[in-house]
TrEMBL record:
<dbReference type="GO" id="GO:0009423">
    <property type="term" value="P:chorismate biosynthetic process"/>
</dbReference>
<keyword id="KW-0808">Transferase</keyword>
<dbReference type="InterPro" id="IPR027417">
    <property type="entry name" value="P-loop_NTPase"/>
</dbReference>
<feature type="active site" description="Schiff-base intermediate with substrate">
    <location>
        <position position="344"/>
    </location>
</feature>
<dbReference type="InterPro" id="IPR031322">
    <property type="entry name" value="Shikimate/glucono_kinase"/>
</dbReference>
<feature type="binding site">
    <location>
        <position position="137"/>
    </location>
    <ligand>
        <name>substrate</name>
    </ligand>
</feature>
<comment type="pathway">
    <text>Metabolic intermediate biosynthesis; chorismate biosynthesis; chorismate from D-erythrose 4-phosphate and phosphoenolpyruvate: step 5/7.</text>
</comment>
<feature type="binding site">
    <location>
        <position position="256"/>
    </location>
    <ligand>
        <name>3-dehydroquinate</name>
    </ligand>
</feature>
<feature type="binding site">
    <location>
        <begin position="220"/>
        <end position="222"/>
    </location>
    <ligand>
        <name>3-dehydroquinate</name>
    </ligand>
</feature>
<feature type="binding site">
    <location>
        <position position="61"/>
    </location>
    <ligand>
        <name>substrate</name>
    </ligand>
</feature>
<comment type="function">
    <text>Catalyzes the specific phosphorylation of the 3-hydroxyl group of shikimic acid using ATP as a cosubstrate.</text>
</comment>
<feature type="active site" description="Proton donor/acceptor">
    <location>
        <position position="317"/>
    </location>
</feature>
<dbReference type="GO" id="GO:0004765">
    <property type="term" value="F:shikimate kinase activity"/>
</dbReference>
<feature type="binding site">
    <location>
        <position position="410"/>
    </location>
    <ligand>
        <name>3-dehydroquinate</name>
    </ligand>
</feature>
<feature type="binding site">
    <location>
        <position position="120"/>
    </location>
    <ligand>
        <name>ATP</name>
    </ligand>
</feature>
<dbReference type="GO" id="GO:0005524">
    <property type="term" value="F:ATP binding"/>
</dbReference>
<comment type="subunit">
    <text>Homodimer.</text>
</comment>
Amino acid sequence: MRLKNKNIVLIGMPGCGKTTIGRSISSKLNKKFIDVDEYIECKYNKSIPQIFKENGEEYFRNIELKSVEEISNKEDSIISTGGGVIKNEQNIINLKQNGIVIFIDRKIEDIVSDVDISNRPLLKNGTEEIEKIFKERYDLYRKYADFLVENNCNIEELINEIISTYYKFINIKQYTSIKVKNVVIGVGYPKICVPMVGRTTDDIIDEANFLKKIDPDVVEWRVDFFEYVKNIDKVKEVLKMIREILYDKPIIFTFRSYSEGGEIEATREFYIELNTSMIDTKFVDIVDIELFNHTEDIKQLIKRAHENSVSIIISNHDFNKTPTKDEIISRLCRAQQLGADISKIAVMPNCPKDVITLLDATRIMKEKYAKRPIITMSMAGKGVISRLSGELFGSDMTFGSAKNISAPGQIPIRELRKIINLLHNNL
C-alpha cells in the first residue's frame, strides 16, 4: 500500500473530539470517514448503550474486535475509534497495518464539562467513573500512538496540526546526521558508547580516567547508579570533574528510571529538575529522556536543551519482551515527532525471532521514516548480533562495556570495535 493511502486512526477518551475532528479531516482530505461505534451499531442493528445493557461489555469488546479487523482492511480512510479500543492490543495491531494512529489528548476537566454521558455506557456513573477510566487508559493511549496532539486549542488549529502531521509522515524528508564535538552520529560505522556506572565519586573518576585511555566515541554517565544522585549539587560537581577529564568526548547524561531498567525511581518533579540542571551546566552534550514521560515534560526539556546547544535522545526500554515490528517503528516515529535528535529503543528478546523482528523494524525505520539518527538494540545474549550489525540494518550507535555493564548483552569495547571495523570494511 502506498503511504498516501494510509488511514488516519484517531484514538482517545470519549469526549476528546475524535468524531467531530475525524469528520472534518475527512472532508478536507476527501477521504472516507468511518466511526467504529457507528459501524457496530449499523452491523448489529443496535445502539451501543443497548448492546452494553443486553449483552454486557465482554460481548461488546468481542464484536468490536471483529469490526476493527474488518475496518482495518480499508484504505484511504479516517477512522474514529471507541474510547476502549486500546484495551485489546490486537485492535491496535490491526489498525496499524494500514494506518497511522493519532492520540487526541484532552484534559479530563474539559471532557467532564463537555461530555453528554447519557449515551456513553461506561461513563453513566458520573465524573468519578470518567476520571477512573482516564487513569486506566491514558498510558495505553500514549503507548500505542504514533503521534500525539493536544485538544486544548481552537479545533481548526488542531485539525490542521493533524493534517500537517499526516503529510509529514507520508513524505520522506532529507535525513540529517548529528555532529557532537568531533563525532558525527548517523553516518558511517555505528559509534561506540561506553557507560560509566560507578556508585561513588572515586569510582566514577576512575572510570573517566580509564575511558580516556581506551578512547570510545561517546561516553554515557548513568547517573542513577551514583550514590548521591538525589543531591543535585553533588551531581553537578561530579559532572564537572568528568567534563574536565573527558574534555573532548561527547557526554550523554542519563537518569534511567526504575521502570525502564534504572537503579532507582524518582518523582516527576525531580526528574525534570535534575535534567534541567545538568542541561544548564553545559557540561553535557546529549541528555537521554524517556519516551513515556509526560509530553509537556519532554517538550519542556527539549526546548531547554536546544537553547543550550544540547542534543536529546528520546528512549524507550522494554525489559520483558520484544513488541511487534509495527510497534517498534511506531515508538521510534513518536520520539522523532516529539523532537528527538536521536530516537532509541531497546527490547528484550525471548526467542531468535524477536531479534529478527528488532532488526527488520530497524531496517524499515531507517529506509522509510528516519529523518535523524536512531539507536536500536535487542538485549541480553540472544540480542548481541544487534549490537554488532547496526551499520547494515540502520542503528547509528551501539553500547559496549569497559569495567562494568549498564545493560544485559553489552560487549567489551575492544572486542566490539574489532567486529564493527571488520563489518564496516566489508560493506
